[in-house]
Amino acid sequence: MRKSSNKIVSFAAFALSSICAHAQPPLVTGDVPTAEPGHFEWSLGSIYQKSGGLERQLPASEFVYGLNERSELSLETPYLNADGERGFGDITLGTKVVLLPENPGRPGLSGSYEWKLNNGSVTRGLGSGGHEHGFLLRSQKTFGWFTPIVNLGYTIVPDVQISGVRETRRNTWKASCAQEWRVSEKTAFLTELYWQQADRAHEQDRLAWNAGVRYRIHEDLELRFAAGKSVRSESAGGPDLRVYVGVQWAFAAPWSNKSKL
Length: 261
Hints:
7% helix; single chain
């Protein structure tokens, strides 16, 4: 019974971390621009997600560092709480490059790569059991107060062995469309619809929505919130509920000539 429970929790934790991958908090959809050169962006928040059972990720932390005008590096370190087990989940390292900067005549386009490590404990339900490689194309265009964003991604997922049982998994596709509605200098409303293919053939794909807000408290500090759920009947494919609450702090690196330190 314990082995079966651990296996289920493992894949629950994997599903939660997958939804967070490539995200631009508070949404699942990732944007095109990179962090300002020589600056960090630190997103720190709490994700509550219910999909059949209860799942939490406390906190969800992501560091992004701007290398130059068109590229950045990122580090995601989730701390999971699922089925009574707590600890760090699989760490994700990533990079994003702007392929075409946005201008008045065309949308912006960027590509990103993420490598999810295999450091989280599978038997405790804190890891997915294998290294994964994710690729994402992002495009967006600003029309005054309105900005649509489109993502298309593909993740290479390995088969895994949990408690001596081999689980056959498949590579997955994902797609999303988000909208930012700038209502004031400090406030933007957010909406999105996203789809993610299940990594096992007999499971249902995820099709869900989120709606939220970004509010700039200070020049370098922003409050972020979003909530959403599956659009299917009885929340088929999940989630029953997903809520994100967090902040993003942008600051110059100590070695940058723009640092205020």
